Amino acid sequence: MTDLVLGLELAYWQQTSIKVLVAAVMVPTSALILGYVFLMKIMSFMQSRLGPMESGPFGLLQLVGDGVKFIQKEDIFPEKADKWVFAMAPIVVLVSTMLLFVFVPVGPDLVGEPVDAGIFIALAVSSISVIGILMAGWSSANKYSLIGALRATGQLIAYELPLVLAVVGVVIQAGTLNLQGIVAAQASGEMFGWGGIGNPYVFTQFVGFVVFMIAIQAELTQTPFDMPVAESEIVGGYQVEYTGFRFLSFFLAEFATAFAFAGIASVLFLGGWWVPGFDIDSNALNFLGPIVMFAKIMLVSFLIFWVRFTYPRFREDQLQSFAWKVLIPISLANIVVTGVLKVVF
Amino acid sequence: MSTTDTTRGTDQGAQELLARGRTSAIEELRERGAVLRMSEAAARSYQDEGGAASDTMILNMGPQHPSTHGVLRLMVELKGETVLRTKPVIGYLHTGMEKTGEDLTYLQGPTNVTRMDYASPLFNELVFSLATEKLLGIEAPERATWIRMLMCELNRMASHLLFMATNGMDLGAVSMMIYGWREREEVLRFFEKVTGLRMNHNYIRPGGVAADLPDGWRDDVIRLLDTLPSRLDEYDTLLTGQPIWRNRLQGVGVLTTEEALALGTTGPLLRSTGYAWDLRRDEPYLAYDQVEFDIIVGTYGDCFDRYAIRLAEIRESMRIVGQILEKIPNGDYRLQDKKVTPPPRARIDESMEALIHHFKIFTEGFKVPEGEAYAAVESPRGELGCYIVSDGSAKPMRMHIRGPSFVNLQTLAPLMQNGFIADAVAIISSVDPILGEVDR
Question: What percent of chain B has pLDDT over 90?
Answer without folding.
Answer: 27
